[in-house]
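your task:
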Amino acid sequence: ATRLTCSIVKAMKIRRFKASDSSECERLVAEVIDKQVSLYYPRDEVIRYKNKYANIKEMLAEKAWVAQENNKVVGFAGLNKNVLRHFFVLKSMQGKGVGTRLLEAAEGEARKQGVKKLVAYSLLGAKGFYETNRFRKIGMHFFDGFEVIKMEKKL
């Protein structure tokens, strides 16, 4: 399993989000929400959450990155000051280093900006990812109408 992970990470490219990535990112979000978010939240909240991401270009006007595998966007993440935002990775690519590489890009930018603590509002199903990456739970929070776990990491 380790070899597979390493080969995938080496073939993967992390780069800045471009407006031309919007439609691919919107499809990715819809897939992640349908296959994963729907496991943890009621249907009406899932629909509202999915509608919120209908125009990703405006949401990712802040600093954002995409992960590409074979010229296909497989994940993306944004950073707004000290808050990690809009973090999505296709289920088929989870556990293969995609999220970690996106997080490293965001952390690097945050450090350049002098950020000392990075904040993430984790959906219930992503808590383990953040804990693995040294975030700690601060408490439960309502963010954009969703119950999420507020987490922090010292940089």
Summary: Residues 82 and 114 are 9 Å apart (CA to CA). Confidence is low (pLDDT under 50) at residues 1-7. The beta strands are 13-16, 63-69, 72-80, 83-89, 117-122, 136-143, 146-154. The longest strand covers residues 72-80.
